[in-house]
Amino acid sequence: MNLVEISKAIATGHTSLGIELGSTRIKTVLITEDYKTIATGSYNWENQYQDGIWTYSLDDVWKGIQNSYAAMSAEVQSKYHKPILKIGSIGISAMMHGYLAFDKADKLLVPFRTWRNNITADAAKELTTAFDFNIPQRWSIAHLYQAILNDEPHVANINFMTTLAGYVTWKISGVKVLGIGDASGMFPIDEKTGSYSQNMLDKFDNLKLVKKYPWQVEDLLPEVKKAGEMAGKLSSQGANLLDPTKKLTAGSIIAPPEGDAGTGMVGTNSVRERTGNISVGTSAFSMVVLEKPLKKVHNNIDVVMTPDGSAVAMVHVNNCSSDINAWAGLFKEFATRLGVHLPADKLYEALFLETTKSDPDAGGLVNYGYQSGENITDIKDGRPLFVRTPNSKFNLPNFILTQLYSAFAPLKIGMDSLSKEENIKTDVMIAQGGLFKTQIMAQQVLSNALNLPITVMENAGEGGPWGMAILAMYAKDSHGLKLGDYLDKNVFTNSESMTLSPEPTGVKGYEKFTQQYISGLSIEKIAGNLKGENNARKVEARSL
User: Fold this and answer.
1) How far is 94 from 249, CA to CA, in rounded Å?
2) What CA–CA distance (Å, rounded) separates 243 from 218?
3) Are residues 427 and 295 in the same domain?
4) In this structure, are 149 and 193 located in the same domain?
5) Considering only CA atoms, which of 277, 262, 265 is closest in space to residue 411?
6) Run of H or E including 325
7) Dihedral Cα 251, 256, 262, 263, nearest 10 deg
8) pLDDT tens digits, residue range 289-311?
9) Alpha-carbon gap, residue 450 to 510, rounded angstroms
10) What is the largest CA-CA distance in the chain?
11) Which of 104, 91, 94 is nearest to 172 (CA)?
12) What pLDDT does 309 receive?
């Protein structure tokens, strides 16, 4: 579209809005009906560690959404000289799962418990055994059952529970609904019925400790919808929540809310069988759309759903890029002290380019970027650690390569279960996330780590909110197409991408690093058990 056409689309509401609440940033993306981004806005935020819980306040949720929306709206006004008065369709996505529980008066009963909390190990283990289906610690049902095991008083008063994306969608539309992908992280889904597994619902309600409560779990959960269905419409109250200036009018079609895994699949066109994608950020996850059920239950592999309801094998890791960002911040401070002011992209590019001079195994250096616990490696409490022996080759190239290697190490360990134990194959594996804004280096390391070709698309750094905007457009008019066909025929017709294949030397070097990484995990466990851990956690929370 040209400038005149875009201005007309804005004025007539022929646009779609995607808002994604990530772990460190809330981002708003506005697209036109040709699926091109015309304006963006963002707001940086951080989780808090309060009373042993990683959380965000609901006040910060709305502050962040409003600031992000305002920044996007200001860009529209600046570029196209038009105020945003109406939007055709809107979609909300957010970090997956966690625990938001409300009473009959819609009051939040306990602070939001995010995916980052490793506090539900007992519940996850018991439910996995009861269901014969892997229940990860971050899933909503694990949080609920752990609260029951803890005999927490609020459990008796629960009337409704949802995810962060479900909460925001509820407040702007009045509808308690979830997209099937996000819903599959609350409670297991039956792929045949497209809703929660009745067999497992019954098993949960019949657990001895659950029977005493006055509710049945199904009544607490949001309604499940698939991509292409409408989840409601923007209410007047919801329009004012998004835009306190009250320019935005009600009536926009609302798409079923999704988790960031779902938007990652859409943003990388990875919703068909034998396709896969990897999203990296504060956390990281890989998604492989399955041709057939897994042979057995794996504690490090989750079974979730694509936004249109196909089964996906998911490897989710709690820690990825946070430690890289922390070290980059230190290098930036040093550069500033020398009078050199580097933009973030130039800083990361300079650091990552150093890896071309490194040893394939990173010189015997090992790093654990665990800002929080890590389920994949059975680490309960995170302690960022850099470890070396007196004989390690300690130089800048090896140090930076170690940071990249460690960022992907838990993901590799989980992915090895899929490739070696389940013999899962993919035709394509597409990666997205901020690390891939710096071309080639992180992409090549990931390819070597997984021993797979890795493709990065041109939108690698911003796929999530854009993917949610696409889902919102699809909810408004699917053109009678299934989601995979819609993406192929309409959205990804001229997408640019680059694919890198594994390097034999790099693959061998990463394998050696992984062996060292696994052998040193006991150090990480010991560090997490040291006294004074509460004070250490508070320091970590402030530094994220």
Assistant:
1) 23
2) 34
3) yes
4) yes
5) 277
6) helix 322-337
7) 0
8) 998 899 999 888 899 999 999 99
9) 9
10) 67
11) 91
12) 95
Percent of the chain with pLDDT over 90: 78
| Lookup: tokens for 394 | 């300690």
Distance CA 93, CA 23 (A): 12
Query: H helices within 81-136, ranges in order?
Result: 121-131
CA 7 from chain center: how many Å? Answer: 33
Distance CA 40, CA 431 (A): 21
Q: DSSP label at 422?
A: S
What is the reported pLDDT for 541? 39
8: in domain: no
15 alpha carbon, distance to own chain's centre:
25
Instruction: Determine the structural domain holding residue 376 and report its residue range.
Output: 322-402+503-543
Report the b/e string of 227-237 with b at 16+ CB within 10 A.
bbbbbbbbbee
What letter does residue 378 receive in the DSSP assignment? T
277 neighbors 261 (Cβ within 8 angstroms) = no
In 3D space, the residue among 220, 216, 194 whose CA is nearest the CA of residue 203 turns out to be 216
Residue 24: which pLDDT band, with cuts at 50, 70 and 90? confident
- Give the span between the Cα atoms of 435 and 345, in whole angstroms: 10
Residue 241 is encoded by which pair of tokens?
Answer: 């929540």
C-alpha distance across the termini of the chain, in Å:
40
Q: How far is CA 246 from CA 12, 79, 417, in A?
A: 17, 21, 51
In a domain, 421, yes or no: yes
Confidence of residue 153 (pLDDT cuts 50, 70, 90): very high
What percentage of the chain reaches a pLDDT higher than 70? Answer: 97
Burial of 442 from C-beta contacts in 10 A (0-12 / 13-18 / 19+): buried
Residues 454 and 270: their CA atoms lie apart, in Å, by 13
Count of structural domains within the chain: 3
Q: What is the pTM of this model?
A: 0.84
125 CB contacts (<8 Å, ≥6 apart)?
A: none
Under 8 Å between Cβ of 228 and 474: yes
CA angle 168, 171, 177 (to 5 degrees): 70
Residue 285's pLDDT is what? 87
Q: What are phi and psi of 49, to 5 degrees?
A: -105, 105
CA distance 152 to 156: 9
DSSP assignment letter at 356: G
21 is a domain residue: no
Residue pair 18/468 in contact by the 8 Å Cβ criterion: yes
